[in-house]
Amino acid sequence: MPLSKLTAAAALALSLTAAAARAQTDDTVAKPNSNPTQVFYLNNISSGNEATEIVTAVRNLLDPHDKIFLVQAQSAIFVQGPPDQLSLAQKLLDDLDHPRKTYRLTYTITEVDDGKRVGTQHFSMVLVSGQRTTMKQGSKIPVATGTVSETGSASTQTQFTYLDIGLNFDATLDESVNGVRLRSKAEQSSLGTDKTIAGVSEPVIRQTVLEGTAVLTPGKPLILGSLDIPDSTRRLDIEVVMEVVK
Question: pLDDT for 171-200, tens place per residue?
Fold first, then answer.
């Protein structure tokens, strides 16, 4: 073959090879991700933090190449990956996003005076596992915090704030392998004898707080502790019992 024809043939071959390489590269770039996408909805979460924690756990356990997105407003998780990874994501979410149990806590406050029971009160609240619940019973007491005089006027206005006086309960139940753990805070406050400070009579607030953690058994009462009432021979015994609602 003449040299000129051989050179032309070689040039044509190189040109075709380059074109094929470009076409393959373009096809690789333009080709969309062929993995399917599935949407999973979270049905039992109560806060955005829970959704974020679940997404973090799923992302750490799936293949790093999988794409995972959280749409918090819809409580939805988008997962793109191979079918086996989608099946694994479904299993993980079934284990993490399960229905929470509902419980009823009943606090019994027994007033004891010089060793004798003189009164009993019951307070009940319904809780969902993992959620904090509070309950208050008492009164709001106005306390003067200052006065304001208008310019050019003899009139004055007194400013007040309000203090909560009574019983406050703060409880959170968490399920564990050893039972149901109660994180509880019981606070009792009352008015004492007023004191005069800088010519102003100010109320004295007596306060007692009982805070701690205990493991509860359904239907079995547990004494959390006792609160002594200052300047008296009385005390308040606090007992709690837990029941499963559903």
Answer: 999 887 778 999 999 888 877 777 776 666
**Mean pLDDT, range 110-132, rounded to an integer:** 89
d(Cα 186, Cα 105) in Å, to the nearest integer?
13
Q: What does the alpha-carbon distance between residue 60 and residue 67 come to, in Å, rounded to a whole number?
A: 12
Give the model's confidence band at 27: pLDDT under 50 very low, under 70 low, under 90 confident, else very high: very low
DSSP codes joined into one string, 105-143: EEEEEEEEETTEEEEEEEEEEEEETT-EEEEEEEEEEEE
Number of alpha carbons in the 13 Å side-chain half-sphere of residue 246: 1
* Amino acid at residue number 211: E
Is the torsion defined by CA of 125, 126, 130, 134 positive or negative? negative
Going by their DSSP bridges, the two strands 156-176 and 132-149 should be labelled as antiparallel
Cα 39 to Cα 99: distance, rounded to the nearest angstrom: 19
For 3, 87, 128, 173, 183, the CA distances from 132, given in Å and listed in that order, are 89, 33, 8, 8, 9
- Cα angle for residues 62, 67, 69 (degrees, 5° grid): 105
Give the separation between CA 167 and CA 162, rounded to whole angstroms. Answer: 16
Q: Count Cβ atoms below 10 Å from residue 100 Cβ, excluding itself.
A: 16
Of 98, 97, 90, the C-alpha closest to 61 is 90
Q: What is the pLDDT of residues 213-237, one digit of tens each?
A: 999 989 999 999 887 777 778 888 9
